[in-house]
Amino acid sequence: DYLEIFIKGSGAKLNIDLGYNIPEARVWRDRAGRVRGVDPSDHITNEDRNGNGTLEYSEDTGLDGVMGDDDKWTPPDSGVVQYDDGNDDYHYDPKKKWDYSKINGTEKNGGEPDNMDLDNNGFVDQSNDYFEFTIDLDDTSFIRPDTVTDAGWKYYRIPIKDSRYYRTFGNPSWDQIRYARLWISDFSGPDTIMIAKMEITGNRWRNFGLFTVDSLNPPDTLTERFRVGLANNKEHSYYSPPPQVKLKRDTRGVWEREQSMTLTFENMGKNHGGVAHRVLYEKQDILEYRELKLFLKSRYPMDFYPIFFIRIGADTNNFYEYRFRLKDNEWTSVSVCLDSLTQFKKSILDTAQNQYAYYRRGNLAFKGRPTLTDIRMYEVGILNDSSDTPLTGEFWVDELRVSGPHRESGIAMNTRVDFKIADIIEGNLTVTREEDNFRSLTSSTPGRETKQSYSASTTFHLESFLPKEWGFSLPLTYSRSKNENLPKYGVGSDVLLTDEQRQAEKSAGFAQSFSFRFSKRGSKNRLLKWFVDPIALQASGNENESRTPTKMTNSMRRTLTFSYSYSPVVGKPLKILGTEIYYFPSNYSFSLAYNKDSTHVYDLMSGTKTVTPREIGEINGSISYRILRNLNASYSMGRTHNLLWDKSRFFGKEMGRSEELTLNYSFSLFRILSPNLTYRAHYDENRPEDLIMDTLGLRDFNQTTNLDASFSLEIPRFLRFIGSLRNEAMDTVPGGGGPFHPILKLFDKLANFFQAPSFSYTYNRTADYRMATDRPDWKYRLGFTEKIELPSYDNTRSTRSLSNTFNISGRFNLSFASLNYSWNYNITDNKSYGAKYRAVNLTWPNLTLNINSLKGIIPKSDNYLQSASFQATFNRSSQKQKDLAQDLVTQDRWDQSLSPSLRLNFKNGLSANSSFSWNRSEQKNYGFQTSTQENDRKVLSFDVSYSFRNPQGFKLPLFGRKVLRIKSELSTSLRFNIEDSKTIQTGTPTASNRKFSLELNGSYNFSRSVTGGLNFNYVVDKNRLTGRTRKEIGLTANASFKF
Questions:
Q1: What angle do CA 774, 777, 779 make, to 5 degrees?
Q2: Domain limits, the chain
Q3: Residue 622, exposed/middle/buried by CB under 10 A (0-12, 13-18, 19+)?
Q4: 3-state DSSP helix/strand/coil percent for the chain, to nearest 5?
Q5: Residues with Cβ < 8 Å from 627, sequence gap 6 or more?
Q6: Shortest CA distance to 808 belongs to which of 754, 874, 761?
Q7: At what angle do helices 715-723 and 741-750 cross, to 10 degrees?
Q8: b or e along 176-209 (b: 16 or more beta carbons within 10 Å of the residue's beta carbon)?
Q9: How confident is the model at residue 566 (pLDDT cuts 50, 70, 90)?
Q10: Domains 206-246+254-405 and 803-1041 share a fold
């Protein structure tokens, strides 16, 4: 509403610009008096010259673009060419806190880069859309007389919405103000202008103007006035705060600021009033409070005081109202009983014909359907309800607040009982209850409903009544639960409900379920073993009911399952030409499932009923065959049918299908090679509900084919075979065994050096087709061909992926160490609608060195070391991505890492671990513009931990001969860490940090019930680009007592 400035100075004009667009270019004078910022060659617009978003030390030059020391600046006429401004250095000494002479310097000020582009849109805007205010410091028009001081300070207050006091440039709007600019002109001579405060002040309460309760008698807008403002103890000498408000002094001994809202009315006629309105950005819930309070005062004594009213609610059509009339012009505490408002509303709405009208009784009133749980608006106002003489005055409103929180308590309980009777029956029972007004430790508001529930579950083992040797399993399980919630208030209401109303408004739920399973094992009779033991029967069902005041829902589900699974006992296989052929399957299985469920929804408000039935049938079968000793095959198929979609068929209409074929073949060649081949094909088909009734028979399907081939090259076995050709008895005879004996013995020793290397190849093909017109043939479903000749009505979502992976791995062994190695190469092609990409990944080398026992290397380590080990890993990988459609490489990337670590465990309980890790990566992205990113990270860590335990504890004398024994356990750890990291993007450093951290932890267990801990951490993090250092020190202590 106002532009307010507290300023000292004269002989000049102060100009203030406010708007959405104000030219961002900065103009200034250097130390020599030259104007800078107009010629593009004499300045820069952004200190961040490399564009990495970080102000580096070398870039902090100021907007003149030149690094220079102002103290060493010499004038141009000295013969020295000067490019530095000479007056742009930043400096502020906290010891000289009143010296701000260099606080606006842009050179060496750190932080964010100085930038003329204030809105970061990429260029320096020159648009003009703003309001300009000009204040003549010699003019007293806008000076508040009571603010002028002997030292020359004065307080200006200018209405910002009055067009007489500003000029307009462009098309500004008061709804869009983002910039402010201050500049001074028309100096009469050298001077200093001091500004203590400059702000735009307003009121969260908006003036909604005058109103009338008599439509035939409207307010006279020429004579009647209503204004909303503020009065405080700093700027208004006539203002005094309410006596009940206790003010505090700040550190300088100055009283804190206290203010009230002012409602000023002039010539207010009978049945006329004025309203101030405030909108809340977030709704408030004040249901848990008893009173709404405020302080009210009339600035002037009056013969007849008008009505003061306050309204609270969701909007101007749904609110509560309370009226009050002052008796004098002293501060008066106004208290509004919130319960009286809700009860008055209840008494009216129970019999009201129009539930959205305005009702008033005495000083209570309401309109519409307000509730204390949804407060989004406040209104205060003045009403001349009965005086024929127009009223003039001013009311002060202060400290609007809620008071008197409800203190009612609630109880919560939870009980659980578990039981078991022999091996016949077992179960549990749980009962919970939580009353309204109960408040948990983590809840900010008390509960507003009473919740109670129970659940019970029991299982009868019917097989207990039969002989155990019969092998039956007959569990019968039944469970039941019920819950009920009784609300304290109505839905969306703040009116307390009676017991009868709570029952009518309650929500409740009920659920029960059962399951029964039949199975048998261990039959000795062949017929029972073939036709009864493989069978499993299961039946289950559940029912759920829920009820709310507006809706009832009932759902039911029944499931029946029959399964048969048998693994024949295969006798001796057939032998044909020395090859064993197995003539019986190793396993075959079959299952049928029937699922029926339905949901009934009753809308109690409209009386409508919705029923959603569903019946699903499932058929699954599988067979596994060991064709040869080293050749296995398995096939499975499953179908899902919707029994309601086509009742003319016995098993409805098929909605889904799956098939899977697996083949495995392994063999050995001369005990040197051990190849293993695995082939797996999987097919999934789905007919969504929106396509099942389509006459074209559209469906979605997915096919995956996977081939794994691997073998181990048994080099150690081959070397041992060669070594076994010698006469081992001659190993201890010098020169015995002939000239080849040492060579054969060496082969035997080399066998321990090698572990059989493993070679593997994996081929994977995945294809997705959408909205195909038919099912593909069996060759495609089982992966024997990838060709498909079916039209698709949605090629845009069909995808295809092809991957080839090669891998080699192994290990070399020494007496005290081992070296693991691996090589991996992968090519993956991905194809989708209009695009085809290839990714090539190579990992080599991937090496891990393990020295599991250093004790043999470290002299005399047995005296103090329990164990010592060392591990080091080195890895390098590369990746290339290519757009095959355009034959363009889109990305190159490589990563490498090194991570050695050493761990020592001492006999005294001390353990130490030191490690180092180095990770480096580089990525190049090719497109319209090539970009690169390099990352480098090094971490050095050192950990020491120590644990001490005294199971005997220590004794403390207590009450004479009695002794208190405390068992103790102490654990401590120290961690030291140094981390160095940097990132370079397209040649420009974007991050460079060095971080040091130290952490000390300790925990002490006095007993099982009493534990304590202490943690100390110290962190120093330095940003080498900005030169800034962040330090962090933390100390925490904790204690735990278990009862």
A1: 150
A2: 2-201, 206-246+254-405, 408-520+534-546, 803-1041
A3: middle
A4: 10, 55, 35
A5: 581, 582, 633
A6: 761
A7: 150
A8: eeebeeeeeeeeeeeeeeeeeeeeeeeeebebeb
A9: very high
A10: no
Q: pLDDT by residue (tens digit) across 317-355?
A: 999 999 999 999 999 999 999 999 999 998 888 777 787
Give the fold, CATH level 3, of 206-246+254-405. Jelly Rolls (2.60.120)
**What whole-number distance in Å separates Cα of residue 829 and Cα of residue 705?**
15
Q: How far apart are CA 333 and CA 809, in angstroms?
A: 85
The pairing of strands 507-520 and 574-576 is unpaired
Cis previous bond, 845, omega within 30:
yes
**Contacts for 361 with CB less than 8 Å, ≥ 6 apart:** 344
**pLDDT attached to residue 957:** 54
The domain 803-1041 having CATH identifier 2.40.170.20: the answer here is yes
Cβ(847)–Cβ(876) under 8 Å?
Answer: no
- The per-residue DSSP string of 785-809 comes to -------BS-GGG-EEEEEEEEEEE
d(CA 67, CA 58): 8
Q: Which pLDDT tens digit goes with each residue over 396-422?
A: 999 999 999 988 889 999 999 999 998
Question: Is residue 98 classed as helix, strand or coil in its secondary structure?
Answer: coil
- Residue percentage of the chain with pLDDT more than 90: 53
Least confident of 8-22, 58-72, 685-699: 685-699
Over residues 804-845, the pLDDT tens digits come to 999 999 999 887 889 999 999 999 999 988 899 999 999 999
Q: How many CB atoms lie within 10 A of CB 703?
A: 23
Q: Average per-residue pLDDT in the chain?
A: 88
Cα separation values, 951 from 30, 957, 972, 1005, Å = 78, 18, 18, 11
For the segment 116-145, what is each residue's pLDDT rounded down to a tens digit?
A: 878 878 788 889 999 999 999 998 888 877
Mean pLDDT of 4-33: 90
Question: What pLDDT, on a 0 to 100 scale, did the predictor assign at position 2?
Answer: 83
Task: Tell which residue, 244, 551, 293, 322, has the closest CA to residue 402.
Answer: 293
Non-local CB neighbours of 130 within 8 Å, separated by 6+ positions: 17, 18, 19, 20, 21, 22, 169, 170, 172, 179, 181
In the prediction, which pLDDT does 622 show? 97
- The pLDDT tens digits of the residues spanning 982-991 come to 999 888 888 8
Residue closest to 340 by CA, chosen among 317, 319, 363: 363
> What value does the mean pLDDT take over residues 90-98?
82
917 - beta bridge partners? 939
The residue-averaged pLDDT of 524-537 equals 91
**Contact assessment for residue 970 and residue 954, using Cβ atoms and an 8 Å cutoff:** no
Is-contact 1029 1023, C-beta < 8 A?
yes
Higher-scoring residue by pLDDT: 265, 52: 265
Instruction: Provide the sign of the torsion angle of the four alpha carbons 344, 345, 346, 348, taken in this order.
Output: positive
Closest listed residue to residue 200, CA positions, set 186, 185, 182, 213: 182
pLDDT at 725: 74
Whether 649 shows a pLDDT value over 80: the answer reads no
| Contact assessment for residue 275 and residue 228, using Cβ atoms and an 8 Å cutoff | no
- For 827-871, the three-class secondary structure string (H helix, E strand, C coil) is EEEEEECCEEEEEEEEEEEEEEEEECCCCCCCCCHHHCEEEEEEE
User: Could you tell me the pLDDT band of residue 964, with boundaries at 50, 70 and 90?
Assistant: very low
* Residue reference for tokens 């004594």: 301
Q: Are 730 and 741 in contact (CB under 8 A)?
A: yes
Q: Which residues contact 268 (CB under 8 A, 6 or more apart)?
A: 210, 219, 224, 226, 274, 306, 382, 384, 390, 391, 392
Taking the C-alpha atoms of residue 109 and residue 88, their distance in angstroms, rounded to an integer, is: 10
- With b for 16 or more beta-carbon neighbours within 10 A and e for fewer, the 13-34 pattern comes to ebbbbbbbbbbbebeeebbeee
Check whether 745 has a pLDDT greater than 90: no
